[in-house]
Specification:
The chain has helices at residues 3-22, 28-34, 38-56, 60-69, 72-99, 101-115, 117-121, 128-144, 157-171, 178-185, 188-196, 200-227, 229-242, 266-298. By secondary structure, it is an all-alpha fold. It has one domain. Helix 3 (38-56) runs antiparallel to helix 4. The termini are close together.
Length: 299
């Protein structure tokens, strides 16, 4: 696709990823997978981290080699879109989640349910072992997202660094929500407050932790996608399926599941769920079409 159109498209994809990362139960990695840039994003982050390590070792030759392999046309507009969504979404999304919790979870449930077929379709040779891997990952995600949230009112900077390093791994892993892990680790509210109040020290430490975790985990993911592609995709299907527990509209405070009670907005929840399913299907189609157009132009 032309350069300007590609930049705008990647910026919009970044908006989707950043918005998803704020929502407990939804992963930015899922959005990257839906719009067809997941493997390219992981590869770019892996090269970027390798370049940073080479610079630390003062190996400028290796560093420049990795820098040249980074897909900057993807990474820069995508990063700007993510930052924009995080800054805007931190003010808007929590209020919507608090005022309309069931409707929001219904919408997100439809989004994730509609995207389950995407990684499954990317498995080149489906085997029984892939089904076993998917089921195991689903059970793991189902248990993980059932953990009760906690709150730490004044987390230490060291804890903020460690929590960010762990949560960022989930933010690029489809099916596992980085925002939810921040909730479990107890710094979700503190992080949103720091962003809204421009607490630069907190934000800087968080970014350093996130950068460290992102680099390490993207390197591992890049290796798995290159050498164990089908098994990795099967695991992603399972993680996304198991994570649907966190998005069940009728969720108790202790994260137990229950059926709708009298007076609950069942109709609007179902409608929004269907809309989410339709939206993600259209988004996946657009992502495949954009990717196909890009390959055609480059060839």
């Amino acid at each position: 696709m032309p350069s300007t159109r590609r930049t705008i498209t990647h910026y919009a994809q970044g908006l989707l990823m950043g918005g998803a990362d704020i929502i407990p139960g939804v992963s930015g990695g899922t959005m990257a997978l839906i719009v067809g840039i997941y493997e390219a994003l992981i590869g770019a982050l892996s090269h970027l981290y390798a370049a940073a390590l080479a610079f630390v070792r003062l190996d400028t030759t290796e560093a420049h080699q990795h820098v040249r392999q980074v897909e900057w046309q993807l990474l820069i507009p995508l990063g700007l879109g993510i930052v924009t969504a995080l800054l805007v979404g931190a003010r808007v999304i929590p209020g919507l989640l608090e005022q309309y919790p069931m409707q929001c979870r219904g919408l997100f449930f439809g989004l994730i349910a509609g995207s389950l077929a995407i990684p499954w379709q990317r498995i080149r040779q489906r085997r029984s072992s892939h089904i076993a891997i998917g089921l195991g990952a689903a059970v793991l995600a189902f248990v993980l997202v059932g953990l009760p949230p906690s709150t730490i009112t004044a987390p230490s900077l060291l804890y903020v660094f460690a929590a960010a390093a762990v949560a960022i791994c989930a933010m690029i892993l489809p099916g596992v929500s980085g925002a939810f892990l921040l909730l479990v680790l107890g710094i979700y509210e503190a992080t949103l407050t720091a962003v809204n109040e421009r607490d630069l020290l907190f934000v800087l430490v968080f970014m350093l932790g996130a950068g460290t975790g992102l680099g390490l985990f993207s390197t591992l993911l890049n290796y798995l996608l290159q050498h164990r592609h089908d098994a990795t995709m099967a695991a992603l299907v399972g993680l996304m399926a198991g994570s649907l527990r966190a998005l069940w509209p009728w969720l108790a405070e202790d994260r137990s599941l229950h059926l709708p009670a009298t007076g609950d907005p069942v109709g609007s929840v179902i409608v929004l769920g269907v809309l989410g399913f339709v939206f993600v299907t259209a988004l996946a189609w657009f992502g495949r079409r954009s990717l196909s157009s890009s390959v055609t132009v480059e060839s």
